[in-house]
From TrEMBL:
Species this protein is from: Medioppia subpectinata
Keywords, comma-separated and alphabetical: Disulfide bond, Membrane, Sushi, Transmembrane, Transmembrane helix
Domain VWFD stretches: 1-52
Coiled-coil residues: none
Keyword Disulfide bond in record: yes
InterPro entries listed in its UniProt record: Epithelial_Barrier/Signaling, Sushi/SCR/CCP_sf, Sushi_SCR_CCP_dom, VWF_type-D
Pfam families from the UniProt entry: Sushi
SUPFAM superfamilies documented for this protein: Complement control module/SCR domain (SSF57535)
CDD domains according to UniProt: CCP
Record-annotated Sushi domain positions: 143-201
Name of the protein in its database record: Sushi domain-containing protein
Transmembrane segments: 209-233
Length: 284
């Protein structure tokens, strides 16, 4: 870049210096076709080298099977500068044919007037249509997904990120892939959802799997221990009975034990019998 010269310009991405002469001077972009040909085109004309010491002449870039360059070049040639070119008076009868072949294509009309060959003009029109197609495609904006880096100690299958592209990831020997193995570039320019892939060593992978297993099993064991503890606690309280008062539950001795204790006391047997009589009357 910025190191070329000639008919293609300086390759500087600046259109204003496209018409730079060998002397470094520049021709205006608004110059006429004839002025560009006479001042710019002829200034860069390549001639056959007559003498190696002649610095005013340069060698042709191409070898033409020993045919001298002058065979291909006519310094006195003047192109048709008018666009579109005018048909000669003697060829006016060919205008309908030119219009049917070229329509409004100026390059096609130009080649038809220069050659009077309709097949040649058709090819020119086809090339013009293809050039316009390429220009439109180059100017068209396509969605593109952002670049996906390959995982460390791994690789990816694609370096293109157009919609519909599927990128697959894999790891080198001795490593395991963690995350999504494949991602797809969507039509909106975003990647399909997924965890970024990572390549980890086999030892680290085994430790990670063991950690996940412990994290799952340990809560289950804790729950089982709590259930067993609750069950044992409830079994130990099976001898406790409800006293009849809301919210109060307290243990007391069995009736037979209380009866024996009261009968052993002076006058206790009579009290027990009165209680039993009152209980039977209440049941009736």
């Amino acid at each position: 870049q910025n190191g070329t010269g000639g008919l293609l310009g300086l390759y500087s991405r600046d259109a204003r210096d496209d018409f730079t002469l060998p002397t470094g001077q520049q021709i205006s972009l608004q110059s006429t076709q004839e002025d560009i040909h006479m001042r710019f085109g002829k200034a860069w004309r390549v001639q056959d080298r007559v003498s190696v010491s002649d610095v005013t002449q340069v060698a042709s870039l191409f070898h033409h099977d020993a045919i001298p360059f002058a065979f291909y070049d006519d310094p006195n040639f003047l192109p048709e500068f008018g666009l579109p070119p005018r048909l000669p008076d003697w060829a006016e009868h060919l205008r309908p044919e030119m219009e049917s072949v070229c329509a409004d294509s100026i390059p096609c009309q130009y080649d038809y007037v220069m050659t009077f060959d309709k097949e040649y003009a058709k090819v020119t029109k086809q090339h013009e249509a293809y050039a316009l197609f390429l220009a439109n495609e180059a100017a068209r904006r396509y969605p593109r997904c952002p670049a996906l880096p390959k995982p460390l100690n791994g690789r990816k299958s694609e370096n293109r990120y157009w919609p519909g592209t599927i990128v697959r990831f894999s790891c080198d020997d001795g490593y395991r892939l963690v995350g999504y193995e494949a991602r797809r570039c969507r039509e909106d320019g975003l990647w399909s959802w997924g965890v970024d892939p990572e390549c980890i060593s086999d030892l680290k992978y085994t430790g990670r799997i063991a950690g996940i297993g412990v994290g799952i099993i340990l809560p289950i064991i804790i729950v089982i221990i709590l259930v067993i503890g609750c069950f044992i606690y409830s079994r130990r309280n099976t001898k406790e009975h409800y006293t009849g008062e809301p919210g109060i539950q307290q243990p007391f001795m069995e009736y037979s034990n209380a009866k024996q204790a009261n009968e052993s006391m002076p006058g206790g047997g009579k009290a027990i019998k009165e209680i039993e009589t009152s209980a039977r009357e209440a049941e009736c």
